């Protein structure tokens, strides 16, 4: 996605800026799902770092026939109020009449805030117009922010490599490997996967073929849910987890921990361990201890062991999980030594039976 930025200027106590975002390969963006976005690179206007996000097939179900655009706050020293204006540009770079609109005045109070237009441009209009040239179109964003006097050096914009790689995954541009996972198909790039995972590197460029079946450029994975593999790809490309909440986050962390161990992705594994360690309680400790031992997770295992050192808690857990005694005796002998000190506790006799 090519982008062009014209420098900002200070006028009457405000800093005005223009940013022209050229979206290349429009025909390919039609494959991007509704609700998925692509981004411009980051740019500065005033004391704030911004980027433009574009939803080629709409930001939500209600605007699926439109292209949605937003001005996003990436980094800031101030908390500006901004009313951006988005314009479709013609061949000469001038706004197209009837397709230049302001948003409502928006407050950018936190990093990540955004304001824009869900129904900026109808795709049917663009495809039939003269403004789609060589499979490209251009959007200009004009806006102003309050000016301030600053003497310190301005830091360069934050890295947008992860954003660009995420866009590459969504757009599938240049993809050279297909995965068939539990009935769903995913496209990816061999070199990206190989750079992030030693197991993928061996599968693509070595003789290893563990847990997969390969036919040409299609690799089948039969023992992983599709939504887990999708989250794994998201992390590989963006180094971040998809947005999740509550129970969904905990369940996904369990699945991704197993996937991280399988594909040798230590950073993802540690992130999942940290999340799951916060979830250890009487209802989850038995399950998470097994998960930690089976997937060689030292941090999570130690958290579970510390929790089980409390005799009342262990008594309750053992009463509801008949197999935990045997599992602890065989796989966690260190824990048995810790519990051995509680000879007056009623669980002591049960521990003896496990030996």
TrEMBL record:
Domain annotation BTB: ranges:
175-245
Query: One matching Pfam family, short form?
Result: BACK_BPM_SPOP
Instruction: Write out the pathway annotation from the protein's UniProt entry.
Output: Protein modification; protein ubiquitination
Which CDD domains does the UniProt record give?
Answer: BTB_POZ_BPM_plant, MATH
Q: What InterPro entries does the record tag this protein with?
A: BACK_BPM_SPOP, BPM1-6, BTB/POZ_dom, MATH/TRAF_dom, SKP1/BTB/POZ_sf, TRAF-like
Give start and end of each MATH domain: 16-143
Instruction: State the source organism's domain of life.
Output: Eukaryota
Stated family = Belongs to the Tdpoz family.
The name this protein carries in UniProt is: Uncharacterized protein
Q: What is the lineage of its organism?
A: Eukaryota, Viridiplantae, Streptophyta, Embryophyta, Tracheophyta
């Amino acid at each position: 996605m090519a982008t062009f930025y014209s420098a900002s200027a200070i006028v009457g106590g405000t800093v005005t800026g223009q940013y022209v975002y050229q979206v290349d390969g429009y025909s390919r963006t039609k494959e991007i799902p509704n609700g998925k976005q692509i981004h411009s690179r980051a740019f500065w206007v005033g004391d704030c770092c911004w980027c433009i996000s574009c939803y080629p097939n709409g930001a939500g179900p209600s605007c699926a026939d439109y292209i949605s655009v937003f001005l996003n706050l990436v980094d800031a020293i101030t908390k500006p109020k901004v009313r951006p204006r988005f314009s479709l540009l013609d061949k000469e770079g001038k706004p197209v009449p009837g397709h230049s609109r302001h948003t409502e005045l928006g407050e950018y109070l936190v990093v990540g805030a955004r304001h824009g237009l869900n129904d900026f441009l109808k795709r049917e209009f663009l495809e039939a117009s003269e403004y789609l040239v060589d499979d490209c179109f251009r959007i200009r964003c004009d806006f102003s922010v309050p000016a301030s006097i600053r003497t310190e050096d301005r830091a360069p914009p934050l890295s947008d490599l992860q954003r660009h790689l995420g866009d590459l995954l969504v757009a599938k541009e240049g993809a050279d490997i297909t995965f068939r996972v539990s009935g769903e198909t995913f496209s990816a790039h061999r070199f990206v996967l190989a750079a992030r995972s030693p197991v993928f590197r061996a599968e693509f460029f070595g003789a290893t073929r563990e847990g997969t079946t390969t036919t040409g450029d299609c690799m089948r994975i039969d023992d992983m849910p599709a939504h887990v593999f999708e989250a794994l790809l998201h992390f590989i490309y963006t180094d971040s987890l998809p947005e999740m909440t509550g129970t969904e986050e905990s369940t996904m962390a369990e699945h991704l921990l197993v996937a991280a161990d399988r594909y040798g992705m230590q950073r993802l594994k540690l992130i999942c361990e940290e999340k799951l360690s916060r979830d250890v309680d009487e209802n989850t400790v038995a399950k998470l201890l097994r998960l930690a031992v089976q997937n060689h997770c030292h941090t999570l295992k130690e958290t579970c062991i510390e929790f089980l050192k409390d005799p009342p808690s262990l008594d309750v857990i053992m009463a509801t999980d008949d197999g935990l005694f045997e599992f602890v005796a065989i796989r966690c002998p260190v824990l048995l030594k810790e519990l051995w000190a509680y000879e007056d506790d009623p669980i002591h006799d049960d521990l003896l039976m496990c030996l």
